[in-house]
Q: What sequence folds into this?
């Protein structure tokens, strides 16, 4: 079981690293450098607002993934019912956009919001289709589908950005339209592939009782996703609202730093997408989940510590290299944001385990605490410190909740507390920070220093036995 998980997650990570690196640094970053912090900050703020609005659909997707993973036979009958439920929530989102129009959003902003909401709707549909593929344990195919939209966007946006005639006239609206076209095509491909895997019918169900049951059963999932999205994504919206005349520009600065956190978190998120149906099946079969938890923590946490240390001591150089408008302030925002990355990794592992086990009430209590912490700190820090205040809030919120998730899982699943294992991770973090500081004092070109730091950290992962040659050979051994 562990070998199956590792082989699939390594394949998914490899594909995503290749495609999403090109997307993040050659497309998305170039868009921001082309249109400027203010225009991109407006887009990013509205995009995060659309994520909050689409939380209903994401919650239904998570409910569907857990349900189908436990019983593949339900897919044929459940597919049209869940699809109809998703459509219902998309209509709710459309109504919310109209309401927001009367709450002070300008004509251009509401048009842009409608566009990014269409993007999120298609993204949710793609996630729903992928959740069925993953629930069928076809993880490699799901990995390819997870990058299909980005591949199409790279082609379309790459042409618009780098072809001289269109590149000089590029607008943020073009970025939105290109994403809509790419997501639509990716959804069409996903539907065709799913129909080949399982006898599903692309039709809507008008069985009100069945749809009402799905809505009722998925409400805990919907509430969880809504609460988590608020404490994760509301910061950029609040920067624009509370930042005064500098709100849009500050949102752009925050978006520039957040792009790298989001890029790193997407790979940790690959674990969550695969772990949800994986944990669901293991728990249904009453298998021990501790080896998979330990494996995921050992794969993710040391890497996240390495990235955090790099952001603290090389953050200014990284931001200056990536963005033409970056100043020292941007590096400080970046360092605080990336310091929350280890907490993201912990959250993806432990909250996914609780979700797979159906501990939604407990998860919602933790998530609600996250909303209270995040909103309270943002209301206090953003007016005075703008993007930096939001970054500090993100670090405090994510770190607090990651500890809560660990404690909750330890109690629910009676997980053993391995002090030696915890100390090893703590020692790695301390060594990584000291090492990053020492290497940054060598006064070499910063990129050489960063590469040297990464190389030494990888060696340390083997020395501290987070990864071992023997374990790799055992996982690759078919016997």
A:
């Amino acid at each position: 079981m562990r070998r199956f998980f590792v082989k699939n997650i390594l394949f998914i990570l490899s594909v995503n690293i290749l495609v999403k690196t090109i997307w993040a640094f050659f497309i998305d970053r170039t868009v921001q450098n082309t249109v400027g912090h203010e225009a991109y900050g407006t887009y990013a703020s509205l995009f995060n607002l659309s994520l909050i609005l689409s939380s209903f659909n994401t919650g239904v997707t998570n409910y569907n993934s857990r349900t189908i993973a436990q019983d593949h036979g339900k897919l044929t009958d459940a597919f049209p019912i869940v699809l109809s439920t998703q459509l219902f929530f998309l209509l709710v989102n459309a109504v919310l956009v109209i309401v927001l129009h009367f709450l002070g959003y300008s004509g251009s902003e509401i048009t842009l919001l409608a566009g990014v909401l269409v993007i999120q709707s298609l993204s949710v549909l793609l996630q729903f289709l992928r959740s069925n593929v993953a629930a069928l344990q076809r993880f490699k195919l799901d990995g390819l589908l997870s990058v299909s939209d980005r591949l199409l966007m790279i082609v379309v946006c790459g042409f618009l950005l780098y072809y001289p005639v269109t590149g000089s006239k590029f607008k943020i609206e073009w970025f939105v339209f290109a994403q809509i076209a790419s997501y639509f095509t990716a959804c069409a491909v996903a539907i065709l592939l799913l129909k080949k895997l399982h006898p599903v019918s692309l039709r809507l169900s008008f069985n009100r009782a069945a749809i009402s049951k799905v809505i009722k059963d998925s409400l805990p999932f919907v509430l969880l996703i809504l609460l988590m999205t608020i404490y994760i994504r509301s910061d950029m919206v609040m920067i624009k609202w509370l930042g005064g005349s500098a709100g849009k520009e500050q949102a752009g600065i925050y978006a520039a730093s957040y792009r790298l956190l989001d890029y790193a978190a997407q790979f940790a998120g690959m674990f969550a997408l695969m772990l949800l149906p994986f944990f669901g099946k293991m728990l249904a079969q009453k298998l021990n989940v501790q080896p998979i938890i330990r494996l995921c923590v050992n794969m993710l946490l040391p890497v996240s510590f390495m990235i955090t240390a790099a952001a603290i001591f090389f953050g200014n150089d990284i931001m200056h290299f990536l963005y033409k408008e970056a100043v020292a302030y941007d590096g400080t925002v970046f360092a605080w944001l990336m310091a929350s990355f280890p907490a993201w990794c912990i959250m993806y592992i432990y909250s996914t385990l609780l979700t797979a086990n159906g501990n939604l009430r407990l998860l919602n209590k933790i998530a609600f605490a996250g909303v209270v912490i995040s909103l309270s700190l943002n209301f206090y820090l953003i007016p005075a410190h703008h993007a930096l205040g939001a970054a500090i809030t993100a670090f405090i919120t994510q770190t607090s909740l990651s500890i809560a998730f660990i404690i909750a899982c330890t109690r629910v699943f009676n997980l053993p507390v391995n002090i030696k294992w915890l100390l090893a991770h703590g020692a790695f973090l301390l060594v990584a920070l000291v090492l990053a500081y020492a290497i940054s004092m060598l006064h070499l070109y910063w990129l050489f220093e960063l590469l040297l730091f990464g190389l030494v950290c990888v060696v340390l992962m083997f020395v501290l036995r987070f990864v071992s040659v023997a374990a790799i050979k055992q996982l690759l051994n078919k016997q």
